[in-house]
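Please go through the sequence and fold tokens given here and tell me how the chain folds. Record follows.
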Amino acid sequence: MHESSNKKRTARILGWVCGSLFTLFSLLYLYVMQADLLATAQHLLSKGQTVYSPLWGAVIITWLLWLLQNVYRRTIAYPLRFHALYYFPSCLVLGLLTSIVPREGWEVQLSANWVWVIVSILVYVLVSWIALHYPDRKNGVQSLFPFLWVNFLCLAVQFCVVGGVANTDDVYHYRLKVERYVMEENDSMALHVGEESLQADRSLTALRAFALSREGALGERLFDYPQYYGSEGLMPDSADTIYVHGWLQLLYKHVGGRPGGNVKSATRFFELLSQRPSAEPAARDYLLCAYLLDKNLDAFVAALPRYYGLDAALPLYYKEALVLYSRLHTRPAVVFKDNAVEANLDDFHHFRAQYADPVERSNQCRRMYGNTYWWYYYYQELPARPLGRE
């Protein structure tokens, strides 16, 4: 009687501990990490008719997953030391649910690593077979601790399965979060997302440029972020279907026009747009930054006086480009003086001269001067070919 009572008490404690850990993991995972992915999926599946609530979504999905393991418990009886195995189906469903990515149009698909899924299921079947063939001892009172650490280990492995199956790509999640903030016109928050990361894709780069432009900081902060796509990074690729909330319409309204089908480069688009009466002031900064991203300092210097006075009020990167231009030309078309910027450029050249190896020089300069236009000009390779709109 005492042994039976002790076993029931141990079972209740294990059930409560495992259930609490799974619930906490699921709520935090859904609410903190995957809220934007699920919001995107619901937006697409409902064709924009419904809005996903991160809090209620996390609560409802977690509750359904808890019900799933509760149903599973009624179909199989694991030993107490393997109680956590009841949560494997719920963990697998959670991983698959958060492996969603958009497809063309209003569709979604699962991006799960199916090899990982199959391997996980096979390992689970093997562990289940072992567990069912080694039941708990019927005689003697056992300490709770051996049951706890085995179940903790099982839960940890199953949580890793969730991460292995789900879409946990950093850039993808940065992009979804930035897009949401842009649609909410919360540009300052958008610019904080992934700001320490050197990873970016073209759509994320274009989203950040748009947020900077609306903040009036395109010429001041553009090179705070990695720029891998040259001037084409100012506009998203029309073949990319990841952006789903219609932010392109806001971008076109912001600059005062949209590219035509015969415009094959972002720079040419902004050149044509800046000549139209309908162009917004933002289009001028986009054009100037396009020249900087193309490393076309001559075109930049020719266009800059049309929009800005050559004085201390210039944005930081325009100053850096002008000072660099003056150093590269014996007879510069424009002469610009800024003692602080010139001193910083001297320090940059002195620092880069300390390293003979080109790779080490680039890496060390990026560590110290990676947020300057000078590092971009000397060390960032431009795309091998224009990334135009097809």
